[in-house]
Amino acid sequence: MVRSLWTAASGMTAQQVNVDTIANNLANVNTNGYKTQVNEFKTLLYQNLQTRTTTANGEQKPTSAQVGLGTRNSAITTIFKQGSMLASESDTAFAIDGKGFFAVKAEDGNTYYTRNGNFRFTLGSTGNMLADSDGRPVLDTAGNPIVLDSKYTISRITVSASGDLCYPDEQNNAKPIGVTIGLFQFNNPNGLERLADSMYAQTAASGQPINEFNNANVQKSSILQGYLEGSNVQVADEMVNMIVAQRAYELNSKAITASDEMLQQANNLRR
């Protein structure tokens, strides 16, 4: 009887984490570059009540009697499905069509990766630097911050599908200026560590970043200027998942109530 209480309690705890994950997805439905997260569950250890040979004569039984001890969350997986392309009036809004990530340099000196291409140029001591909304510099294919000389008029800068920054010549034809926005891929993107601001950190599980610029073994991504990648959260699906999680939570709570009533009846047998 006590076993059923702990089993149902583990189910309530797991479903609470499931609801938290779904709520986080819904909260980030309008976050650029956000990727849906999905809970995965696993069963706990099983307890043997009877083995296959339980008679005194050692007769074989076809199956043993085992009872489970509940469930727990095993992982929260990120679904790296392409989000919708949202038109933007900003000239420094970029969306990635493919599996690549932008790279930014944080204040702690580490490099982080994101699908949120809502960038802007900021004026610094060495020129105009391309940065994200929090001022972190965006890196080029060589891993260096993208900084343009003051001779370039920022409003006339365009970016090609391959990430090359272009500037018009005398005939007003856009020509590459030798700077390319870096795009990086990972062998196992689900191994990336999730951070705030739709950013990810490299881990041992994700593997080393693969530079698309100098690696011919990966499918190249393309950059769309004037667009932002929206989240890939499907609100209708998340609402259905929320209902299922709530019903599962309610079912486990009823199992606790039933176990409590049975224990109460067992205690009343002494009266």
Feature tags:
2 domains; elongated; single chain; 20 strands; three-stranded antiparallel sheet; alpha+beta; four-stranded antiparallel sheet; 271 residues
How much helix, percentage-wise, in residues? Answer: 10-25%
Strand content: 25-35%
List the strand order in the largest sheet: 7-8-17-16
CA-based shape: elongated
Low-confidence stretches: none
Q: What is the CA-CA span between the terminal residues? A: 20 Å
> What's the pLDDT, averaged over the residues?
90
* Tally of domains: 2
The secondary-structure element order is HEEEEEEEEEEEEEEEEEEEEH
Q: Helix tally? A: 2
Radius of gyration: 27 Å
Please identify the structural class as seen in this structure: alpha+beta
Q: How would you characterize the largest beta sheet?
A: 4 strands, antiparallel
User: How many β strands by DSSP?
Assistant: 20
Structure notes:
- The two termini are 20 Å apart.
- The chain is α+β, with helices and mostly antiparallel strands and 271 residues long.
- The longest helix is centred in the last third of the chain and has 34 residues, at 235-268.
- Strand 7 (102-105) and strand 8 form a beta hairpin.
- It has helices at residues 2-27, 235-268; strands spanning 36-43, 46-50, 65-68, 71-79, 85-87, 94-97, 102-105, 111-114, 120-123, 128-131, 147-148, 158-159, 164-168, 174-180, 184-185, 193-194, 199-201, 210-211, 222-225, 227-229.
- The model has no long low-confidence stretch (mean pLDDT 90).
- The protein has 2 domains: 2-80 and 246-268, no CATH class; 85-229, no CATH class.
- The strands form 8 sheets. A 4-stranded antiparallel sheet has the order 7-8-17-16, with no helix packed on it. Strands 9-10-11 form a 3-stranded antiparallel sheet, with no helix packed on it.
